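Quick one:
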Amino acid sequence: MVPPKSAAVRTTSLCYDYSMSMTSAGKVRNTALAFALLMALSHVACATGAEPDKDAQVDPAPCFAAAAAGDDDKIISACGGLIDSDRTARADRLKALLARAGAQDRKDLIDGAIADYSSALMLDAALADALNARGELWRRKGDRPRALADFGAAIKLNPDHPGAKGNHKSLARELERIGALMAVDGKPSFNCANAKRTVEKAICANPELANLDREINAANAKVVNSASRDSARAGRALQREQNAFTARRNASYGRLDYDLRTAMRERLDYLLAIERN
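Output:
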């Protein structure tokens, strides 16, 4: 029994028979021309039946199944082919990009997640969630301006977006605090133009010591004010401690056994511990 021919073989056979018939029965007399015609017909008419489809679409099911299961490793591996294929439908590519971006975010692959969110936003610029997520990634990288821009763009698309609103507000405050700190960076709590003591001049000449002095002064003000709300006596006691520290600092500076930086750091740590409690 002769097995049946496959569709591809049958198609090739039919094309070959047709080509041969065109070169017989006096239709093409010249032998060279007949051969050229045979090859051309065979290539054009038979290629689709003899070769597999090289442009078959990638099955999106594994990627979406991994996303539904929350398996980040499978999401990253299964969605890659779907994203990279030229034959992937736009909607499927968008879903795959968002799924892989989320997976990379959870695995702390920040640069990869940012790249996927950026590609998704190129397909659909109106994704407020993607803008907010990318903004959070920029913030984690320390790129505050880009983070603020993404949060602002998300709010513009969705004024009631809870994540973007909260992120934008907190980042704006953070930038405000940074700006305020930069304005006083390297400046002590007192006016250096009026500094007379040697220790005060030394603090003014050293940005690190100047910052320590300012932070000590701010922390002391907080703990004294907090204690005074409960007990005026407790507040006065804390201020007397600060005055005693300053007096020791002024008297001890210049001695070989006195380390001004260490003394100031210890004082600040002490005040911050009181503030936390």
